[in-house]
Amino acid sequence: MIHRRADRNARRASASPLFTPHGTDRAKRRATRRQVAEATAKAHAAATSRPATTAGREMPPPLYPATGRPGPASARGSKLKLPAHRMTTAVAAGAYPFLAEGGLGAEGIYIGRDVHAEASFTFDPFALYGRIEGFTNPNVLLAGVIGQGKSALAKSFALRSVAFGYRVYVPCDPKGEWTPVATALGGTTIALGPGLPGKLNPLDAAPRPASVSAADWAGEIRKRRLLLLGSLARTVLGRELKPMEHTALDVALDTVVTRASATSRTPLLGDVAATLNDPDALDSAAGVMSGRLGDAARDLAHALRRMVHGDLAGMFDAPSTHTFDPRAPMLSIDLSRLGGGSDDTALVLAMTCASAWMESALADPDGGRRWVVYDEAWRLMRHAGLLERMQAQWKLSRGLGIANLMVIHRLSDLLTAGDAGSRGRALAEGLLADCSTRIIYRQETDQLTAAAGLLGLTSVEMQAVSHLGRGRGLWKVAGRSFIVQHLLHPHEVTLFDTDARMH
Ligand SMILES: Nc1ncnc2c1ncn2[C@@H]1O[C@H](COP(=O)(O)OP(=O)(O)OP(=O)(O)O)[C@@H](O)[C@H]1O
Ligand SMILES: [Mg+2]
Questions:
Q1: Top-tier CATH class for 100-166+368-503
Q2: Residue 499 CA: which ligand 1 atom is closest?
Q3: Region entry Disordered: which residue ranges (predicted)?
């Protein structure tokens, strides 16, 4: 039956060395086998008796005799007897998925070595877009346990892409490890923290791109601001907003914007918090819709107060001290001096405000190809409100020529956003679906099942993921699999070193 299938799929089937068609009788088949054995023995004898010179030139003796490598490891001592097993190459490719991979082509930045093909591995999400089936977006998810070289890979993406004219943006760098990279590339770093002069206003309106009309742009800015305010409030409150709270936020933002534009100022988070805290002003601004909006907004006012007072005081509630320079090759926002409190909500809120500021600056569709790197994004995963803002940004990014790179530890970080079927989980899964490229560095054994479930890994891939070393990852590019060893240039090793304090 296998022979018949092999006949049908003649191009795909593995070749059989001795094929005796059906219909020949047993004696004939035996005679054919004997002839083949005699011919093989004759050829063997001729090969071993031939002198070791060709055209007078001394040939080096063969490393191993024609019978193969000596010793028990050769499995040639006639002791290993396994039944012959034949399969089509299609089946073989399914059972051993890495054997038959042809590579992604030579376009893009050099990443390192494709371990199975022993070939160079290059990658450029923009070059692959539309070229391979199922590659629907340029976004990349990178997951792996601590210290496996995730940030090093992200930094190589950044460093090497600059040569292709891409710009690199790191909206939140909680460890401050991107600053040397930005400096080396001639880019800028904005450091935020208590006592530091740097301030960013996440409600800043980016200059209107030439290709967008004034009315559309005003609507776009309003949408972004509302999304940010809603996400911040939801994260501090730890719950969804009620309908009246949504209205209150709307009304407060519009009031603040009208007042600010009358004095040619940019609205601040503190202005929104103050308006929410003024029930009479809210009620009169809401007009017929009112219905005691002021009372309903009390929780909101307290939630936004956290952004204005306390640990984040001043950082995101003042006019920005930096203007965005679209010509700089790289920009990172260093949040390492924010200090780690017992709960990291403050850091997470800061990461969100910093991202919102940078993303609105990146809203120019003519800004060229850009990488936006969310290192340590796993911190944001626990907050459904922040995920929602992030996903909205990702949906926009394809039209803007932006490739997002999200770095997390475990794939189950995505599951912490909520229980199965919840809104948070749906958002996290949507974010995963929005990444055509998933790079999996080593995962803990207890995480493998979750990873396999989310990414549809085969058992061979699961086994591979649990044994990966530093810098080595399983790349799933639109369903195709590669094991790639990321190779660092000596200069990169020094520049990317995060182990310095451990040496
Ligand atoms: N491909 C590689 N070859 C050699 N060394 C590497 C490679 N990748 C990373 N390293 C080294 O490993 C160390 C840790 O790397 P890195 O900080 O990128 O890990 P990480 O996965 O981002 O860790 P964390 O989860 O703590 O952020 C660095 O000092 C880096 O120089
Ligand atoms: Mg890292």
A1: alpha beta
A2: 29
A3: 1-78
